[in-house]
Specification:
Layout (H helix, E strand, L loop, with lengths): L3 H13 L13 E4 L9 E6 L6 H6 L2 H8 L3 E6 L3 H5 L3 H15 L4 E7 L1 H15 L2 H4 L3 E6 L1 H10 L4
Parallel strand pairs: 2-3, 2-4, 4-5
Antiparallel strand pairs: 1-3
Helix pairs in contact: 3-8, 5-6
């Protein structure tokens, strides 16, 4: 048993670097992917990552392109709202202050908040928060969308609209 402990510690330390936990003290990182066919009414899809992912992981896996195949007039904002923001109870206010409000002030009128797994839970938590939030936060037209892996596959295969 004592020989297994160092191996287990090494394995745990190595795996800790395999996924993003993040730092909730830092600003939420983002990767912006502009719409290939911009429209007059600006639309933004904000994507919250699943556990262990961040914005760069989602970009590397082509998530923005999958969304834009079905919705070419939408800008996509991939976020690094990682596990640390959930763990520390900061996700919803930080997403609102750092991402949603600046998007509305930047001219977006339609904003979709999407995520799979943990990110889907974050989108639903945000939507729930807006129902009890100050009036200015409720009036901005946010819609939450929970993506499952199967849903993303269907969207990609059918190339249809959401």
């Amino acid at each position: 048993m004592s020989r297994c402990l160092p191996l287990a510690l090494c394995l745990a330390a190595g795996l800790a670097g395999c996924f993003a936990i993040g730092d909730s003290k830092a600003p939420i990182g983002t990767v912006s992917v502009p719409a290939p066919q911009p429209a007059a009414e600006r639309t933004l899809v904000i994507v919250l990552p699943g556990f262990g992912d961040d914005a760069q992981d989602m970009k590397d896996h082509g998530l923005a392109e999958v969304i834009q195949e079905s919705w070419p007039e939408a800008d996509v904002l991939l976020t690094s709202a990682t596990f640390a923001y959930y763990r520390d109870g900061k996700l919803v206010p930080r997403v609102h202050e750092e991402i949603v409000e600046p998007a509305f002030h930047g001219g977006y009128r339609r904003i979709w908040l999407a995520g799979a797994s943990m990110g889907g839970m974050g989108a639903l938590l945000y939507e729930r928060w807006t129902k009890s939030a100050p009036p200015a936060a409720r009036e901005n037209g946010i819609r939450a969308l929970y993506l499952r892996r199967r849903t993303a596959t269907i969207i990609s295969a059918r190339r249809g609209r959401w």
